[in-house]
Amino acid sequence: MRQQSPPVCAGFWPRRPTRISWHPYAAMCWRPTASTPISTHWQPCSGRSAHRNRTSIPCCARHVQWEAISSDMSSQKQSHNEEVAVGRTSTVRRWVRHSGVGPVASVVGGYLAMHTLGTGIRRYTPPTVMDFTRSGGALATSAAAFLENLGWPAAEVEEVLHEYREVSELLVRRYAEIELFYPRTHGVEAETSAVLYGLNRLLKPQSVVETGVADGRSSWLILAALERNGQGRLHSFDINRTAGRLVGQHPQWRLEILDRKEPEASLAHALQRVGPIDLFFHDSDHLYLPQLFEYSQVWPRMTEGGVFASDDVNCSRAFLDFCQERGQRPRFLFDSRKITGAVRLPGARSVQQGQLVG
């Protein structure tokens, strides 16, 4: 039999087969030999077993008309797109009947805005869990795992967390002694509280900066650790004069109330007086631009081996974007209704004297 040009067995066709033109006089199909490219040297195929598990099309397929394949695929794609469009229209009509025009218009409007305005809207939408996993950093759901992910040995972590259990009992008593000005939800979560105490005990920083104080839960925990260290100073910044009721007065604490009308300029000026920062913790305004501003002001002042941390990184993409632009892989703590992120900078600090070592 004279070989046709170019025959092909349907067993070699892609998963999504196109319509095939059958040769009316063929008694067998053709397939390429194993030792040659598909485009040359064809031989008859003896049966369907030769192409088992390659496709659902029987091996009696015969003589594909190559000239018609591309046009056939185009027509199928066009037909598919038309079916999808009809399906979407039907879906919209169905949901309008069930939910009304308002909710459907809101969803459709948001979808169109996301696809037309792109990155601009993306920055002002909260990140998803997938965004955190794509950042490449380790995820934790406990203070112990989070501190270990930042590089501290498990034995040291366990020791400071054992201390924290005792400290947390003192904090409960302190809460009972005063009347709170802010809701309890304004304070850091349970695991984040343990992280703050543990970070300050393990890092033994000379200079700690936190933005956002509220009643002072985080401030109280940081100061408890610094007091046990016997060194270090906490610089806290807030815009409300009622902030810090849990702490009151402490010799290792400086609370500065920023100008409400110009908090950014006020913070930038105050940070110049602070000097190098060993540990930073953001817990103030959680919108994209305010977060990004604070990060950009603090980052150049961080010391080697320091820890750059932020609460509520799930409220905007600022922390993720900031770390990505600087090639950092942050660690994350999924703590109840909030997510805390942190980066430990390269280098090591001497815990005895707070000096940097190479």
TrEMBL record:
Any one GO biological process: methylation
Keyword Methyltransferase among record annotations: yes
GO molecular function: methyltransferase activity
Highest taxon in the source lineage: Bacteria
Keywords: Methyltransferase, Transferase
One Pfam family it belongs to: Methyltransf_24
Protein name, per record: Class I SAM-dependent methyltransferase
Organism: Streptomyces luteolifulvus
